[in-house]
Design goal:
The protein is globular, with a radius of gyration of 17 Å. It has one domain: Rossmann fold (3-Layer(aba) Sandwich), CATH 3.40.50.300. The longest helix has 25 residues. A 5-stranded parallel β-sheet has the order 2-3-1-4-5, with helices on both faces. The chain is of the alpha/beta class and about 210 residues long. Helix 3 packs antiparallel against helix 4 and helix 4 runs antiparallel to helix 5. The structure holds thymidine-5'-diphosphate.
Length: about 210
Amino acid sequence: MNKRFITFEGGEGTGKTTLIEMLMKDLLASGFDAIKTREPGGSKISEQIRNVILNVDNTEMKYMTEALLYAASRCQHLEEVVKPALNSGKVVICDRYVDSSLAYQGYARGLGIEKVYKINDYAISGFYPDLTIYIDVDPRIGLGRIKSNHRDMNRLDLEKIAFHDKVRNGYLEVSKMFPDRIKVIDGNDTIENIYQKIKEIVFESIK
Ligand code: TYD
């Protein structure tokens, strides 16, 4: 079967959003019926769940609670947005999916990849993407890209980098667990070069 459910993964400053935009343009120009989405992706219930996760008052939220809420939101978005689009023959490009939870909650927050995998596998009933593009960027470069001023690193920046190093290591672990599904793209390059690699892989997988 053609590979039509495609997810994008990566840390901060990987250029995910721009790359997805570029891909969408080419897919539509080539006659593919394609949509892009991201959790909560316009699903009312997913949105409500996400508000609980992001609410700054919820400082006492446990990492496990957060992982379960992400999984719940994912289930709703999958059933309400992704599956109907796939069933009507569309290519679905989703910005973040299960691998975000595996890298952030499982590895970086320390819950354990296996544990978070189990929660998500249950929440999505084993519905994995056909293809996942993971853009691998050194956080020092990624965070530097999004930082407009070039002041020296302060303590918070360094903490941030330590966390994003963990996220990156998490993604690399997860990529090793699912080598057939996840394609690791070297993101330490120009956006045009990164995009050409992604375009080749995606168009090959959906043709
Ligand atoms: P967001 O503002 O949507 O931006 P971006 O995708 O451009 O980074 O931030 C999403 C944040 O939520 C990001 O820091 C990763 C985090 N996240 C998780 O920790 N677990 C998840 O399962 C998902 C989907 C996101």
